[in-house]
Amino acid sequence: DLLVVGSANADLVIGVERRPGPGETVLGSDLAVHPGGKGGNQAVAAARLGARTALLARVGDDAHGRLLLDAQRAAGVDTVGVLVGGAPTGVALITVDPSGDNSIVVSPGANGRLTPDDIRAAVSLFHASRVVSAQLEIPLETVVEVVRNLPPDSRFVLNPSPPRPLPTEVLAACDPLIVNEHEAKVLLGDARVSEEPEDWARLLLAKGPRSVVVTLGAAGALVASSDGVARVPSVKVEAVDTTGAGDAFTAALAWRLGAGEPLAEAAAYAARVGAVAVTRAGAQESYPTAAEVAAL
Length: 296
Ligand code: ADP
Hints:
Strand content: 15-25%
Number of domains: 1
Number of strands: 13
Structural class: alpha/beta
Helix content: 25-40%
CATH topology: UDP-N-acetylmuramoyl-L-alanine:D-glutamate ligase
Order of helices and strands: EEEHEHEEEHHEHEHEHHEEEHHH
Oligomer: single chain
Largest sheet: 9 strands, mixed
Bound molecules: adenosine-5'-diphosphate
CATH architecture: 3-Layer(aba) Sandwich
Distance between the termini: 25 Å
Strand order of the largest sheet: 5-4-1-8-9-10-11-12-13
CATH class: Alpha Beta
């Protein structure tokens, strides 16, 4: 079983002719409200594929929180670990102009109130899980507590997004650490001497994770472990909306690893899931079933 520990946000999206400058008011389209947040996205993506999935997260006792819970349950996610209250549900306020450029303000809200105590109180969820997947839209001290509560025979998958320096204890637990190009650059800082993703993977591996996956958008991905570095084939598709592709990739990878697949095969499957996700609008709305992935 897969346990996703992370954020759940309501994405509030308004289309505008022009994004407002300082002091300016512009009129926009009707409001669209979409379930989002990296934790919520991953849980829905995994459940849609058929993975037995639980989400450990925090939402507010408000309409957005209920919307997010409904979206999780509709996808088949076990929401017994979703805590309610303490702050308003996390929200992303998004304006999008006709060229597709956006401006985003995030209020972490309840996501910022998911505490180490909440992790300790969820120990039964951890014991039921073969793979635990986390991101960084919750407090780092909470992610540290996740690592400390991993069952001995489980596997930890981390997408360090938004990226920030990680304690050795967290890095050492990752199997794999999954980064896109931007996250790789931030984590490597001055150490990033090369433009070759293979080099980033090797440098990241030297920081202590047991394995590393670098996602490269339309170019696919690569995997790195003590077995070496290998390219994962990209899948050619007509991209419509890449929102949430990385979350779908990570969820699929975590699920296949939990099913016992080797890293390179799990990543190749995840690349197919990511490819389907970019052919459709939205994040959670774009995630495929296993049958849709097989039909690609
Ligand atoms: P993120 O969304 O975190 O920035 P990427 O853009 O690297 O992550 O996308 C994650 C994965 O989704 C990629 O490794 C790839 O497998 C798939 N993917 C993303 N964009 C495309 C695309 N245009 N065509 C095919 N696959 C894609």
